[in-house]
Amino acid sequence: MSSVRTTFEADRQLNAVSVSHHGHGDRTFVVPEEVPVELRVNGLPFVVMMVTPRDIRDFATGFCVSEGLAAGASAVLSIQIDDAPLGIVASVRIARDGLIKRARQRGIEGRSGCGVCGVKTLTDASSDPPPVPFAKAPRYAAVQRAYHELGRLQPLNAATRAVHAAAWCDDQGNVVALREDVGRHNALDKLIGWRARNALTDSGFCVITSRCSFEMVTKAAHAGVSSLVAVSSPTGLAVDIAKKVGMTLIARARADGFLTFATTKQAEG
Predict the structure, then answer these.
(1) Set 64, 114, 117, 206: catalytic member
(2) Which of 8, 124, 162, 227 is the most buried (most CB within 10 A)?
């Protein structure tokens, strides 16, 4: 796959005035950037997403896979990334026999915090993900290890305290890869893209630092993720979908434990 490195930076240092009961004073503060990324598929504009300008190739691959647009990473023949006057253009070429015709079309730009922005109908918003491969649920010790590793492996969040992360962990809870973004969906797409491009077949589980809404479960299911762990809470619909596709869904992961809302034994189809 070909790629042109973007010149956009992932964060920026700004001047601010600190105000507290001790008084006020000048200080500098690091903030994350978000840049419009236009995704073009086989020469045609498909969607514009607000993304932290890092790991764009992973994002483009992951978005195509998690949105059900491409039938796996092998269907993505090439990705060209170019700077544009107003943002970044990611041109993706998908093999004709790997292009899924029923992929949801986006009518407006996707905000960094939105998972279904721009879809045209309620039918488009309600995706039907496939069952995920069977895998044993992550062990307690593995989830705890992953939770404790996350903090030291998020450099952008350490600098800004304003971005989400998605990580892939092995069966022991060791973090194998981690991607960060201002958008929780984007972070997951980047991780899915990394996993797909590396043809990862090893067992393990995915951890996200955000809440677990239905589109996060749907994206993970399209990517064949069998176990999803969220630091925050799930929605009811997210739990319903996890049970339907046979996914283990763990949420509210903390230093002292977590809650299991769905397991592979609860698969409904």
Answers:
(1) 114
(2) 227
